[in-house]
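Ticket reopened. Same input as before:
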Amino acid sequence: MAMRFDLLLPLLAILVKVGVVLVALLTAVAYAVWLERKVVARIQSRWGPYRVGPHGLLQPVADALKIFFKEDIVPSDADRVVYWLAPFLAFTLALLSIAVIPFGTSITIGGHTIPFQIADLNVGLLFVLAVTSLGVYGVALAGWSSNSKYPLLGGLRSSAQMISYELSLGLGVVGVVMVAGSLSLREIVERQSDLWNVFVQPVGFLLYFTAAIAETNRVPFDLPEGESELVGGFHTEYSSFKFAMFFMAEYANIVTVSCLATLLFFGGWLGPVFGPPLLRALLPVLWFCLKVFCFLFLYIWIRGTLPRFRYDQLMAFGWKFLLPVGLLNVLVTSLILAWRST
Amino acid sequence: MLPLAHILALSAILFGLGAVGFIVRRNIITIFMCIELMLNAVNLAFIGFSRYLGNLDGQVFVFFVIVVAAAEAAVGLAIIIAVYRNRGSLSIEDFDSLKL
Amino acid sequence: MAPLFYVLATVAILAALCLVLERTPVYSALSLIVVLCSLAVIYLLLGAEFLAVVQVIVYAGAIMVLFVLVIMLLNARQETSTDRSRLARWLGAPLLLAFLGEVIFAVWQRFPPETAPAATALVGGPRAIGELLFRNYVLPFEVTSILILVAVLGAVVLAKKRL
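Engineering reply: fixed in the latest deploy. New output:
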């Protein structure tokens, strides 16, 4: 039973990558919360977290400690199994799509080339859409299992909203797939080395970004969970750790959607690369992280600026405006591509 | 090496469980879910054969089965909602007369 | 690869048993979702990549969401067993299981476990499936799109409270 070193090293590489990516993602989620509170505060002419650590940088730590020490209240007659399952499902699915996201090119250590991606599926983009589709369950089951009217209404509205905007999300991405000729995220980025897709598919980008904001239940589409509307929406009856999981799942979804937007439309990790091989391997990761940060800032900026849609306006916008625009985009793109290939 | 017989056996077991559920259960939505289980068992058989005959036509057929199952689920659930509004019950024992 | 198939097959069968035996409709729906996802991974093992992802997106991510939402809206309660269901259980189920045994026996005879996969076992990637769909099967494809349109219209009309 000799040790298969040729199998062992890739497995070890994958485990290390999974660990690094998870830690980075969870830190990004924690500091996205800090960033949001600071940016929204400045938009509203106030300071935001300032006391806990320099400029409130230890605020996420304080929040985490507070949440862990809160009492865990379960409503009577709540369906135990589903009540416990929903936040874990939401959190797991939010972390799952990171597996196919490429952060950079690759790094060569001792003769082995390790790509900066956990799994390079050639249907990678569809995998992300699949995980997004499954994300509806966390919301719907949470709303139902709480056995209370605000969560039920919020959960039903949220899940209907998420299903409706999934279509526009998919259509915004179809144009990119047609231009790139592949569903693999790495290949889509590599085809953008001449020109970023945002200039080739501007309508697709706007469609994708709007649908993404609606998918992640953020302002201006956050009626199902806005405090002044439905108390807390689907997570009203959740407290302590389970609430923290919903919260983290929402921000992890935002990070994932931002990563996907940079990969599909803004050239992913493409940017000026120079220097020794180690720098050449790490600079693309830096460009990628900078672009994702810009998208996070854009999300938070929109949150601080826009009022929210009413629910019927939201659904009408998704079905009667975004969906026809998406179909038109696919039609025009395919006509242009067919005309170019003759 | 995965024998075709094992894939077909799994498909038959799932189909059989779906059929048993269809006969035994009383709640109409659960019966509908057992129908979906049977459709999935058939899909698995198609994909097994597609692999063992070296032909992708089986997979295209599964694609059509999935699409038709989606259409059927939508219309079927709409009918269930309409019947629930009329009868007030979801048990098939209350759906036994054509008169309202 | 083969051991993974048996693990997934066990998960699928246990979830299907859960679906058939559970009294609460929501738990049955969740078990069906587990069956669908394990079948999706089995499709991946058998070389149907595109279909595995389509199964998750369409079946587990859209059709089952429809089921779960309808169960929630209609507030489906736990089932109670009655005289007629007892008759079905004690008579129907064993007969069906006997039929199932016959089918498995016939299948085993016709395709003994020594049958090897075809030498040209293809991988169903999006490009290959797309070429087949839009060349050989373009007519069923267009007819299916009309079918979906009819289904959408039918569902909207049937579920309306007032026409």
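Chain B touches chain C through 71 residues (CB under 8 Å). Chain B is about 80% helix and 0% strand. Please confirm and we'll close it.
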